[in-house]
């Protein structure tokens, strides 16, 4: 084990103390320094933000019944019924939902209306296609049953000979 003199110990102590204080100062500066995140805003800016929030909430309250009505129409929609006006009503409702975004496209919060219209549009498309596919499957099942019936009749007619 090495023995250090009192002077060497004092020098090492002061070196490590200085290193500790420097490290603590750098860490405190990095953690507690205000990097200009605009935590101080003026009263007018704050009131503008509140007005924009209120405008957005009013728009959402206005759009919500249209979204709900469109969803209800899509759920009740029956593709087997040949009513073009129902499809046009649903498409117009989806376009109306999308128009809420077009009123303020620079505000990212209004993108929710685009997403809502896309969801409604895909639901409507899926409903039409699924019903059409279901009709195709039922038609194919009916043809399969006819084939089975005619196969049995042929087997019976060959068995009778």
Q: Radius of gyration, Cα only, in angstroms? A: 37 Å
Mean pLDDT: 87
Structural class: mainly alpha
Largest sheet geometry: none
General form? elongated
Figure out the total of helices.
4
Taking pLDDT < 50 over at least 5 consecutive residues as the criterion, the unreliable ranges are none
Per DSSP E runs of 2 or more residues, the count of β-strands stands at: 0
Please give a structural write-up:
By secondary structure, the chain is mainly alpha-helical. The chain is 81% helix and 0% strand. It is built from 4 helices and no strands. The chain starts with 5 loop residues before the first helix and ends with a helix. The model has no long low-confidence stretch (mean pLDDT 87).
Task: Sum this structure up briefly.
This protein is mostly helical and 161 residues long. It has helices at 6-32, 43-76, 84-103, 111-160.
Give the topology, please.
Elements (H helix, E strand, L loop, with lengths): L5 H27 L10 H34 L7 H20 L7 H50 L1
Q: What are its keywords?
A:
4 helices; mainly alpha; 161 residues
